[in-house]
Amino acid sequence: MAILLVSYLAYRLLSDDGKTIFMPGDLTSGHHQIGIVCDACHTDSFTNKDDMQKACVNCHGDQRVKPFDSHPADKFTDPRNTDRLENINALYCVTCHVEHKPEITQKTGLTQPKDFCIHCHEDVAEERPSHAGMKYDTCASAGCHNYHNNRALYTDFLVKHAGEPDLLKKRRMPAREFGEVLDDLATYPHAKFPVKTVHEGDISDIAQKYATENIKHDWMTTAHAKIGATCESCHSTKTSVWEEKPGSDACKQCHNVEVKHFMQGKHGMRLQQKLSPMAPAMSRLPMKEKSLDKELTCNTCHQAHLYKLQRSAVDVCLDCHDDKHSLAYKSSPHFQLWEQEQKGELAESEGVSCATCHMPRTSIDVSDWLRRVVVQHNQNATLVPNEKMLRPVCMQCHGLGFSIDALADERLIEKNFKGRPEIHVQSIDMADRDNKRHQQKTGGE
Amino acid sequence: MNMVKIIVGGAVAFSVAGGLTTTYAAEKMVSVKAMADALHLVMDSDRTIYTRKIVNRLVKKEKVIKASEHFEDDKALVLPAQMFRFGAELVKKRSKKLPDVDFSYSLQSLWPINKQNAPKTKAEKAGLKFVADNKGKNYYTEETLGGKKYFTAVYADTGVAPVCVSCHNKHKDTPKSDFKLGDVMGGVVIRIPVDG
Fold first, then answer.
1. Do A127 and B191 touch (CB under 8 A)?
2. pTM of the model
């Protein structure tokens, strides 16, 4: 019996998808897709916190720096902060985000009690009289504070944007600018793909075997032919061997930032771990029956050769997603704007698609020396906590107060923002009161 | 007197005109106090130059740009104190890769705008009070934090430009709003680990 059991366990340990039997508890929704790759997190050992921390930073490190993180680890490596670490060891992600503990894991992935801020901010009311008497388990209430990203919630920002109208005069997402900044992109393969328009005559003999009239048309009428990408640019990336269905390595040659982000999000994280692509059947969210077996790669959303961005901004999302928020989109005011943009009644980037909010165009540092507008392909980057969406998304069209209230109203989110917020978050009012108190004290300066 | 071994690149090779190459072991014993004083001199000089030649020149004299605590949002210059802190953070990050280099520094005040920059340890509290009460003098001591022994030096940080003083006096979070030009407004704390 014992031999049988040992053999069975050994088999499970060695098989690709059998290791889950050894899992001490279910994984969070952030990691469940890659659960069979134990060493994605447990790199060299199951007990060494430093090894595990490296794994956390490897995937999440980009955002754990100022100004995107109010509490980066560096803040706590100063010897003068040693005593703070005795209460909350902020040098390790696992102090607050323990995996395999679904019974204590909150929606944000937090496994500490909600009032953990008290350890360092017990005297907050001395500096902020508006906070007197507040309980510490309300610090992270919607629209107030996050441990990490407070870019739209810090006092001066709240005061600066107090009193803004619900709808701003200028309502538009930033325009794409990849083509304009190519010369400045050190990572762009200029030598391999000189920027010039290529024509039908540039199609090689081998490519001619595959190039149907439709493919030729799609390629020549979209950006790739205009910017020097021939058939071989994607179909023969490493060798002269023709690759019929190139993967993300082909895209990465020019779109490395986009592919990197894609692989950080739920759509692409399995590919990052060298697993089969994500399929809706694996998701914990409601997905449409007809799409359960669809595999998510770059070309799932960006139809090969055509790369029609309008389709990848709405239709492909709704092909799979079947939750209330997604199903309500087509009866939302945002969709009306999207339709108006498609009809030419609104200018480009004035409509609101699924991608406008969940894959927003944001200006980010793509190197130490260059900032450019990119489409954020990690759809999780602004999702939880949803205040991360305020600056790059909501505030492109709406005032801060309205945006904070709307994101705090779960029923309104479910209705895909059809209607008005029925919740009012006090953040701006409190910041305004503290600011006015200061102005009275200093005579209005 | 605590001494610290300063190693500059392990060894330095000098080429001379005749083609001879001599290798010197570039190890020299200097006092930990001298090291702290030297570090402070570099930090203070760099920040003074940034304040005078960049911030004050462009903001006050040529009036072409603002300096702001929220420099990214306001598309402005970083404040001199922020420039100093960013330097300290970069040193912390880069020194991790240098096994022979270990020190940290911070800008603190008895009247901090950000309460996180108030003195915390006994040495910091005593040091900041000493440099405020004894203008022109530095404070040196030893302390043990997290089981590790440090040589800790505190240097006065003085309001050298009118803009330093006025900005601190007006800030909504300042606990002191009557600083005058030349006042000690805080202190630079340099910490170097020493053998127990």
1. no
2. 0.86
| pLDDT tens string A27-48 | 999 999 999 888 899 988 788 8
Q: Is the ipTM of this complex over 0.90?
A: no
Q: Which residues of A touch B (CB under 8 A)?
A: 67, 74, 77-83, 123, 127, 156-157, 160, 434-435, 438, 442, 445
The CA-based angle B188-B190-B192, given to 5 degrees, is 175
Between chains, do A78 and B92 touch, taking CB under 8 Å as contact? yes
Neighbours of A286 (CB within 10 A): 13
Q: How far apart are CA A24 and CA A272, in angstroms?
A: 24
Number of domains in chain B: 1
Q: What is the DSSP letter of A32?
A: G
The sign one gets for the Cα dihedral A306, A307, A310, A316 is positive
Q: Which two tokens stand for residue A244?
A: 């019929």
Q: Do A78 and B106 touch (CB under 8 A)?
A: yes
| Strand A371-375 relative to strand B104-108, pairing | unpaired
CB atoms near residue B187 (< 10 Å): 27
Closest CA to A362 of A381, A341, A386: A381
Q: Tokens standing for A412?
A: 């309104």
The tokens for A414 are 């479910």
Which residue, chain included where needed, has tokens 């190459």? B21
* Overall size of chain A counted in residues: 445
Chain B residues within 8 A of A78 when measuring between CB atoms: 92, 104, 106
B73 → closest Cβ in A79, A83, A157: A157
